[in-house]
Amino acid sequence: MEVYCEMEDYKLIDEHSRPAADRKERQEHHNMRETRFWAVAVFIMAFVFLLTAASMASEMPKDPKKETADIRLDPGETEETEGISPEDPGDSQGESGNSEGGSDGESEDREGLLLTEESFQVGDVPEGFLEPVAQQGTIERVRYQKEDENGEKETKSVIVYLPAGYAESDRQYNVLYLLHASGGSPRDYLDPGRVTPFQCLIDHMIEEGKLEPLIIAAPTYTSGDPFESFLPLGIQVTNISDFPDELTEYIIPAVEETFYTYAESVDEAGIRASRDHRAVAGFSLGGTAAWNVFIQKMSAFRWFLPISEASWDDGEGGINGIWDSDLSAEVLYEAVGQQGYTADDFILFVATGTEDIAFEIATEQMKSLLEYTDMFITGENTSCSMMIGGTHTLSAIYTYMYHIMPALFY
Asked: Over the stretch 218-262, which tens digit does the pLDDT of each residue have?
C-alpha cells in the first residue's frame, strides 16, 4: 500500500488579475480546507488526550503519598504496548484499529517509503528498563515568573531530572528540554511524586553506560500550575508559536542558573555560547513546538528531536504548512540562513511510527526537506528514523528516546 499526501501546486499570481468568480472560488476552497484542517485537528487532539489520560491513569501509584523509592512499576500492566512484536498485533489502540503491532500488514507495505537510515521496532527497549534502578536520579521543580504582553505575571514551573550522583559532582551537564503532547503534561515524563517509566529508562541507560549523565527539563507550553494542558486547539497553536520566546527568556535561565550546566551565564550571549550542549525534543504537538524552536531559536540549541509531527509554519504566521510539505520544508530551509547558521550548525533527528496518525504528514515533510541536499544531509546533520508498527501513544516515546538519545551531544 503506497501512502501519499496530496498537495495542490500553488503559483504566485496577482490576486487582482484574477476574475472575481475565480477569486471567490479560490477563497471558498481555502475556507473549506481550513474547516477540514480544524475538524481533523480537533479529532486528533481528543484522541491523543484520551490515550494520554488512560496511560496516566494506569501508571498512577495506588498511594500517591508513598516515597518515590518505594514505587515499583510493572510495565506489563502499565504499558499496553511494550513487548508486542510487529507480527503480533495485540490489543487495539483505538484510531482506525491501530495497534503497536501494525494492522493488516500495512507496516511492511509502508516500509518502502520510509527514507530512513535506520528503523527500529516496538519492544526494542530492553526488558526491565522501565522498572526502577537502585541508584535513581532525583526530581526537582523549578519555578519562574512569566510576564505577558499586558504586564500580567504568571508563575509556572519546570520538572527537572538530575542524574544519580549529581549532588556529589561539580561537573557540567548537557541539558535536554522535553515537550509533552497536546492533552498531556510534563508529568507524562517526569513526576516529583512517583518514578515514571521514562525516568526508569533514563536511569538504566545512564547506569549501564548507554547514555552520558545529563539534565532533563520538562516544561509546558500551556498556562497553569498545576499543569492544565487540554485547551482549545487555537489556543495551543498560539502557545506553541510563542513558546520559543518563553523557552529562551524564562525557562532556560531558570533551569541553567539553578543547576550545573555549560552556560557560564544565562543572558542571551551565555545561552548562545553554550548551544552545543542543549537539545530540545517533543512528541506530537510538542514535536511541532520543537520545530518552532528550530525556526526561531537556533541560537540556543544545536540538537533537535521533533517526534511524530511535522512543522505547521507557513512562513506567514499561519499553519498551512501542515497541508503543504514543500512550503513547510522551504520555511525550515530558509529559517537556518535567516538565523545566520548553516548545515554545520545543527543536528536534526526526526522520527515517527508506521502506524502513527502523523505518519503521512511527517514523512511527506521529510521527503520535501531532503530535497534541500545542501542543508539537510542524511548521515551528517539529519537523521530520519521509523518505528515499525509504532503508533501515536505515550509508550512509543520510550523506544524513540532509547534509540536516539545516545547520539546526543557527540
From this structure: 999 988 777 766 677 778 888 899 999 999 999 999 999 999 999
Arithmetic mean of pLDDT, 53-65: 36
CA distance 199 to 228: 22
- Amino acid at site 206: I
CA angle 57, 63, 65 (to 5 degrees): 115
Concatenated DSSP letters of 292-358: HHHHH-GGG-SEEEEES------SSSS-GGGT-HHHHHHHHHHHHHHTT--GGG-EEEEEEETT-TT
Q: 3-state DSSP helix/strand/coil percent for the chain, to nearest 5?
A: 40, 15, 45
Give bridge partners of residue 63 from the DSSP assignment. none
232 preceded by a cis bond (ω within 30 of 0): no
Chain centroid, CA 67 distance in Å: 30
pTM: 0.74
- List the beta bridge partners of residue 378: 382
| Beta bridge mates, 176 | 216, 279
